[in-house]
Amino acid sequence: MCVAKVLSVNISEKKGTVKHPVEEISLTETGVMNDAHAGKWHRQVSLLAMESIEKFSREAKRTIGFGEFAENVTTQGIELLKCDIFDRFRIGGAELELTQIGKDCHGTACAIFKEVGNCVMPKEGIFCRVRKTGTIKPDHEILYIPKVFRVSVITLSDRASEGVYEDRSGPKIKEIMSSHFSGGNRKYEIRLTVIPDDADALRRLLGEHADGETDFIFTTGGTGIGDRDITVETVSGMLEKQLPGIMELIRVKFGMDNPKALLSRSVAGTMGRTMVYTLPGSVKAVEEYMSEIVKTLDHSLYMLHGIDKHHA
């Protein structure tokens, strides 16, 4: 079994120039000390696999030195391109979080491109931000920690909680979210809970999940205008920021064909770093709502965690 490790650590004093190997790099809260790319942004530390460099060397028919593609850390034994946003790397005492895969190529305006004639970094390099400061040296082992996305699905129904009928809406949300995560080969955990239409019970559950570990909370049921429809009021009182646009779009889109859809009071928003969505109780409505919500899931998390995808 090949152990993933660091082959070289490299810095440069100016952006757009090749980096040169050093004995060690010190990671601060803003990136690599004395490196031009350090700063309060999401691309503080760059990594590139030796496997990618060797492949390019064969194509270019020349030896490529450490740091020549402007990577801070040259790795070996880990397929960086199979990693995903929010995955982490523990190296020595430091810890990095993956925030971007590849980047825009500056072409002939970049010194790297001028000297090498091409650049592998835009396609196969990854970028991270510092989650734990420390020192990284050559031969340090790399511990890869994939992100596990955690989802809580809460069905509110007096009858389903009493066993009068089987909950189908919660499992449908689980099915759709499983498909969403499986498409990116990401790890995930989905927890299903059925409770009565009880504001205190819902409030307790939401409080338990506002722990920084749960990425998404979906409720289903209780979004109408009946006496027992308490979901919207309960959730709204706990949201820090509301996202009205998502639910407004859904109501208008599906209300065009089915005016009853306009009676839903569903809301969406954030609790800390958790995205929260309240969905109606029918399976058909869940399918309609989720068809639009899944389009925004990834970008919502990026924004919530301070990853600026507009500046790649």
Give the overall form: elongated
Helix percentage range: 25-40%
Number of helix segments?
10
CATH class of the largest domain: Alpha Beta
First and last CA, distance: 34 Å
Alpha carbon gyration radius: 24 Å
Strand order of the largest sheet: 2-1-6-5-9-8-7-11
- Structural domain tally: 2
CATH topology of the largest domain: Molybdenum Cofactor Biosythetic Enzyme, Chain A
β-sheet strand percentage: 25-35%
Low-confidence stretches: none
CATH-level-4 superfamily name of the largest domain:
MoaB/Mog-like domain
Annotated CATH architecture of the largest domain: 3-Layer(aba) Sandwich
Biggest sheet statistics = 8 strands, mixed
Order of helices and strands: EEEEEHEEEHHEEEEHHEHEHEHEEHH
General description of the model:
The chain has 312 residues and is α+β, with helices and mostly antiparallel strands. The protein has ten helices and 17 strands. The chain has two domains: 5-145, M1 Pyruvate Kinase, Domain 3 (Beta Barrel), CATH 2.40.33.20; 148-304, Molybdenum Cofactor Biosythetic Enzyme, Chain A. An eight-stranded mixed beta sheet has the order 2-1-6-5-9-8-7-11. A hairpin with a 2-residue loop joins strand 16 and strand 17. Helix 5 packs parallel to helix 9 and helix 8 (244-255) packs across helix 9. The longest helix has 14 residues, at 169-182. The protein is elongated. The model has no long low-confidence stretch (mean pLDDT 91).
